[in-house]
Every structure is written in C-alpha cells, then in structure tokens.
Amino acid sequence: MMRGITDTVKHLIILNVLFWIGTLAVGQYGQVFTELFAMHFPLSDSFKPWQIITHMFMHASYVGTGNGVSIFILHILFNMLGIWMFGSPVEQILGRNKFLLFYFSCGLGATILPLAIDYYNFYSITSELIESGKYSMDSIVSILNEGKFYTEWNNIVGEEKVQSLNSLFGTASLGASGALMGLLVAFGMSFPNSSLMLIFLPIPIKAKYFIPLLLGYEIISGIAGGTSMFGFNVGHFAHIGGALTGFLIMWYWKKTQFNKNRWDR
Q1: Per the domain annotation, does 18 fall within a domain?
Q2: CATH code at position 63
Q3: Domain extent at residue 178
Q4: Single pTM value for the model
Q5: Rounded to a whole number, what is the distance in angstroms from the first to the last CA of the chain?
Q6: Distance between CA atoms of 207 and 119, rounded to whole angstroms?
Q7: pLDDT (tens place) for every residue of the chain, 265 residues total
Q8: CA distance 80 to 13
Q9: What residues does 227 pair with on adjacent strands?
Q10: Can you give 65-104 as a three-state secondary structure string?
Q11: Does some domain include residue 26?
Q12: What is the secondary structure of 165-218 as a DSSP string?
C-alpha cells in the first residue's frame, strides 16, 4: 500500500517540522510559539483566530524530567509517521484538493468536540459563581485571565472545579493527532482488510477491526482522563472528534459517489 510519499503529505510534514523547530528555537521552552500558535480557550486573552488552524502544526517540544526539561521528539515523530503512512494512500484515492479539505476538516472536528465540552464545563461552573451574587461573567473571565487564584471560589464550587477553570485558561491544545485520526479512519474505510499493528502490541489486526478498537480506547480514556505513558496530556476527545469527522465525510462521499455511478449507467 505504501508507494512513497505524496506531494501534499510531504508539504504537510515539512510545515509541521518547521513549526516544531520554531518552537525549539524561539523563546524559552517553546513559550513564544505556544502562546502564538497553539489553541487557547476562546475567552482567554491568549486566544487568536489563526490558532484554529496553526495548532494543527504545533507539537510538544519539551517534557519535564527528573533533572529539569528535555527536548521531546516522540509526539511529532509518531504523528508524522502516521500522516505519511495513512495520508499518502488516502491522498492517492482522493486527490490533492479533496485530501486537503478532508485533512483540515478533521482537524477542525478535532477542535470542535473538546471545545464544546470545555464550554459546557465552563458555563456549568461559572453559573454557580454567578448565582452566589458576588461575581459577573465579565469579572470571572477577567480574574481567570489575570491568573489569580481565588480561594473563596473553593467554598462556592469546590477546589476541583476551580482547578478546572484555571486549567481551561492556562492550558493550550496542539498537535496533528486529530487530523491523523481522520486519516486513519479514511484509510480503514478505503482499505478495510489491510493489516495494522499497535507499536507495543505487534499483532496484525485488519483495519476494519483495529479502528473500532482504537476508538473504543479513546472514548474510555477520554472519560477516565490521565496522561499518556510518555508523560504528556492526550486530547482523547480531540482524537474522537477527528475520527468522527473523518467517518462522516468518507461515508457521505462514498454514498454520493455510489449514487453518481448508479445514475451514470
């Protein structure tokens, strides 16, 4: 199935690598690039409209270790390997323009689902603060953007919810994983009998079985939470959003292509 890298996939990988190098080269521990190009919560002062697209090309460049901070390459390495492996055969099927539409649509789908969950959590928690009569929405957002930690909020909504609010404004999302999940789904729907393997479980599994298992894992992990075995946070709901978007697009295209072929007979 692998016949080399296609042009569009090659350019996507180059862009990702350039962003990664920029994160290493500019500012301390990638803070400048992360502030500018990673995806921030839209009510945060750090949010910029272009982050909706640029965060797809950003990857974790540093990871904390026992001795401080080290350069981290596994995040981008695995994502670029996946884009190459699954993106090239998918581009060969779809063509450049449809492939780019598909890729960015999956990346946007990977943004919308976790963002919807974040907004739901945000308004659920802040409504309790507003009902206390001591705060308005504007004052809450202002306090969060200033990075202040109000212990009084613990008494109103509880420490866990206060930490959740601060996390929304203090954490940025980044990575090509959501778009990659869409490519994986497209590959599985196009080549259902191709064998795939997990890196840490080298047993060949047909794509039509592998992908549902992977999505089941993402759903369970998203509900349970936690970090990956490599020590960085994983956006499981972003993965689900990208995969679901990829499935819907491929399902629609296959359905309309079938109808077109049927009426052309």
Answers
A1: yes
A2: 1.20.1540.10
A3: 7-263
A4: 0.87
A5: 30
A6: 34
A7: 445 899 999 999 999 999 999 998 888 888 899 999 999 999 999 999 999 999 999 998 877 666 666 778 888 998 999 999 999 999 999 999 999 999 999 999 999 999 999 999 999 999 999 998 889 999 999 999 987 766 789 889 998 999 899 889 988 999 999 999 999 999 989 988 887 765 555 677 787 777 787 777 777 776 776 544 444 566 788 889 999 999 999 999 988 875 555 444 4
A8: 6
A9: 233
A10: ECCEEEECCHHHHHHHHHHHHHHHHHHHHHCHHHHHHHHH
A11: yes
A12: HHHHHH--B--SHHHHHHHHHHHHHHSTT-EEEETTEEEEEEHHHHHHHHHHHH
* Domain-embedded: residue 245: yes
Residue labelled with tokens 């206060």: 162
In one-letter notation, the amino acid at residue 36 is L
Q: Residue 1 domain-assigned?
A: no
Tokens at 171, concatenated? 């954490």
**Total number of domains constituting the chain:** 1
Give every CB contact of residue 198 below 8 A, 6+ residues apart in sequence.
205
